[in-house]
Amino acid sequence: MASNPPGDCCATGFRHEGTPAGEIKDIDGVKTYISYPKEKTDKAVFVVSDIFGIFINGQLVADEFAKAGYLAVLPDLFQGDQIKLEDQAAGKVNLPVWLKDHQPSHVDPVIASTIKYLREEQGIKRIAGAGYCFGAKYTARFLKEGQLDVGYMATPSFVTEEELAAIGGPLSISAAQTDHIFTTELRHKSEDILIKNGQSWQINLYGGVSHGFAIRTDLSIKHNKFAKEQAFYQAVAWFNQYL
Fold first, then answer.
1. What's the chain look like in SS3?
2. Active site residue 211
3. 173 or 4, greater pLDDT
4. Out of the domains of life, which is the source (predicted)?
């Protein structure tokens, strides 16, 4: 595998503070958070969430992409069955059992319907996928002509070598120094795969942080906050270049 399956570190993190600026809409039966840029655009960022789905951290990230000039969407990949932070904190999360009900056969249709909505209802011509942890797998799966045009992953999990080798567009990855999911060995293997693939790519390694830092880090720690912000800037710079 290009990255290991999700583990306990995927179900840990810190809730961020802020007030979401977007709105919740029902898109073909899927609860979807949408954040709008100041000016009309034909470019969008599809925020492909971690296992916490639509929650404050992801919403605030979507808002930042909207501030950068993109229409940002964050659909509920789990149809109301996302992991809750309070359950994680109370030790109620059984990730292997939960994952059985959230396989590609469950998630792929949500991704496909959201892309269709963006292109047919919103008039979007170019779509970037920003996959965080769990969502990285689906960024890779849908980084194909007519689906996602550009990809970004932060501390990817559950991405197979075959999925990574089959991407059809530019891909940027934010990696953490301490990551049992996207290990040093798997990061180097991913580099080899991307070189052979021939698409434009980059992998930036952030020291002193761990898996999930780009979406769930403790912002009270100055270095963590800096790394999270830099990973976001990495994504925006990549989208500005290739989208």
1. CCCCCCCHHHHCCCCCCCCCCCEEEEECCEEEEEECCCCCCCEEEEEECCCCCCCHHHHHHHHHHHHCCCEEEEECCCCCCCCCHHHHHCCCCCHHHHHCCCCHHHHHHHHHHHHHHHHHCCCCCEEEEEEECHHHHHHHHCCCCCCCCEEEEECCCCCCHHHHHCCCCCEEEEEEEECCCCCHHHHHHHHHHHHHHCCCEEEEEEEEEECCHHHHCCCCCHHHHHHHHHHHHHHHHHHHHHC
2. yes
3. 173
4. Eukaryota
